[in-house]
Structure formats: C-alpha cells, structure tokens
Write a structure and sequence with these properties.
The chain has 165 residues and is an alpha/beta fold. It is built from 6 helices and 5 strands; from the N terminus they run H-E-H-E-H-H-H-E-E-E-H.
Length: 165
C-alpha cells in the first residue's frame, strides 16, 4: 500500500475543503517531522489555507513553541494523548489558525525514554471549538510508521471538517 500517495491525495482534499470554507490550518509535528507540512504545501492553493508549521521534535521545543506544560510531559511521557492535546491547543493559541494538527509518538527502532512502545502515535486535531485526540499503534519500520501517522493526521482533519460543517 502506498501511504505516501494516499497522504498527498488526502492533503489535496483537505486543502480544497479548507479553501472552500475560507479556513486555515497549522501543524505541529514531532514524529512526522514535516511530512504533513510537505504534503500540504505540495497542493496548489495551499498558500490560501496553510498558516505555519512547527517541527517540535524535542521536549524543549514543545514547551517553548507550543506552551506544553513540562509537568504534563514528565507525568505522561512525550508520546501521549495529553501531550498531543496540549500541542494542538498551544498551536491554535500561538497561530490563530482555525485548525491545528499535532503529532507525537515513537517511530523506533527502540522504545522512548518513557518506555513507550515503537509504533505508538498520538494525533490531535483542534479547532477553536473542539479537540479530538486519537491513538494508534502502527507496525513497520521507522519511515512506514511516520508515513502512516501523516496519512492518519489528514484523515482526522477531514473528520473534523466534515463534522463541523
């Protein structure tokens, strides 16, 4: 299955839907490391909807740029639904976008410092009204996990757009 091709197709759908509704999106990527932003900006018309993106790979970057409380990281681990939620909430606050996508997880090849299993991914999508966080466990090597996470992020954004409009 070609996850990359599927990701770009979903990105096109998201950009079209955002543009149609005059909405914006921003991204905060940890595990996906820019894959979501890359898929968005590959779509013609992305400049009408894409505000900005952060690659907040380190704990410090999440705290500094997205206002994630260090105690939440310490309590739940960086790859957690709580951190994903705080990343999305901070991104909405910092950017003023209508929607925010945030990803965190463990791509491998080993567990993280908190003991989180390889393939564990949390994706949050926030609007100004709502935050939805989903957890996943993907199998495969590092880049396969990352690509599956990026695809899932677009599916979650489409879900949010569908249910709010």
């Amino acid at each position: 299955m070609d996850y990359v091709k599927q990701t770009y197709n979903k990105a096109r759908k998201c950009v079209r839907k955002l543009k149609k509704n005059c909405l914006t999106v921003s991204t905060a990527e940890s595990i996906t490391g820019g894959l979501i932003a890359d898929a968005i900006v590959s779509v013609y018309g992305a400049s009408n909807v894409y505000e900005e993106g952060y690659i907040t790979y380190s704990d410090y970057a999440k705290i500094k740029n997205l206002i994630v409380d260090p105690e939440i990281i310490e309590t739940y681990g960086v790859a957690s639904k709580e951190v994903a939620r705080e990343m999305a909430r901070g991104l909405i606050y910092e950017t003023g976008s209508d929607y925010a996508i945030a990803t965190t997880g463990v791509a491998g090849p080993r567990k993280d410092d908190y003991g989180t299993r390889v393939g564990t991914v949390y994706i949050a999508c926030a609007s100004r009204k709502n935050i939805v966080v989903r957890s996943y466990h993907f199998w495969g090597f590092r880049n396969k996990v990352r690509n599956k996470a990026a695809l899932s992020a677009f599916k979650l954004l489409l879900y949010m757009l569908k249910n709010e409009f």
